[in-house]
Amino acid sequence: AATLNDLAEQHGRYFGSAVDNPELSDTAYADLLGSEFGATTPGNGMKWDATEPQQGVFDYTKGDEIVAFAEAHHLKVRGHTLLWHNQLPNWLTSRTWTADQLRAVLKNHIHNVVTHYRGKVFAWDVANEIMNDDGSYRQNIFYTTIGPGYIADALRWAHEADPHVKLYLNDYNIDGIGAKSNAYYTLIQRLKAQGVPIDGLGFQGHLALQYGFPDEVQQNLQRFADLGVDVAFTELDIRMTLPSDPTKLAEQADWYGRITRACLAVRRCVGITLWGYSDRHSWIPSVFPGEGAALPWDEYLQPKPAYYAIREAL
Ligand code: XIL
């Protein structure tokens, strides 16, 4: 039978799933990941605390493990992420830096990591979650130390290290039209006007039934495509208050179908990545207590209504 990725490929898109390193030892899980999907993203393996645990000391063990799995199973890899306010190493967060010092630290990190994965990843989430929900810049260590110019700097340094890799910004709560996605619209417009290398915007798509479906998803994707960047769902999961029941699972299935159709309706929506594909391995229950059942396969790796809704949409 055709896989989700086979069906997506008929539209010139990919269908992927993130994976965290320990999950590769779950052989049933890894087998289905390798056969059903066409792309993967390391859930944690390429974050700063993993790749540069001591200043100037780089460790690519985890990222390389996922790249090797991906190569063995013909999956594309999205690199995630060069810069984020979470999962930074202690050496970086536990002291104060001057702007020039932190700029040098960021440049060295980006140059090293992007150079290492040149030709191995097709895209990088260069900067992750840099906006607040109200559309103001998040006051992360880079913003407060360097100022807003750190974003353009990071994109330029990534481009220097690999002129071919696609460079993305990536965030949550931007799937629909609203203050936060408007802020990205203005930022990308400005970056483009200044000739800063920016190729895409990643919509994490961490949705929750209890918050309602985001507004005007297709129009939102389209307005970014019209600015001249690719768009993608990069971390899709649709959680619910536990326990799940047939009504919630049907609504979840409907939402997965709607997201898939919105992406297919926009030519520059290049693909969809789930943040893990089964309820067996999902970040949701540990971060949102009482919530879960967010993925199209259940904890026994059996397809849920959401899986059939995605197939139907593709
Ligand atoms: C999550 C991982 O899945 C967890 O294992 C980790 O403990 C925390 O980070 N947005 C992102 C991802 O961009 O990197 C996050 O991944 C989920 C939210």
TrEMBL record:
UniProt keyword annotations, A-Z: Carbohydrate metabolism, Glycosidase, Hydrolase, Polysaccharide degradation, Signal, Xylan degradation
Catalytic activity: Endohydrolysis of (1->4)-beta-D-xylosidic linkages in xylans
Keyword Hydrolase attached: yes
Active site feature: 235 (nucleophile)
GH10 domain location: 1-313
EC number: 3.2.1.8
Record-stated family: Belongs to the glycosyl hydrolase 10 (cellulase F) family.
Protein's name according to its UniProt entry: Beta-xylanase
Full-length numbering of the shown residues: 56 to 369 of 370
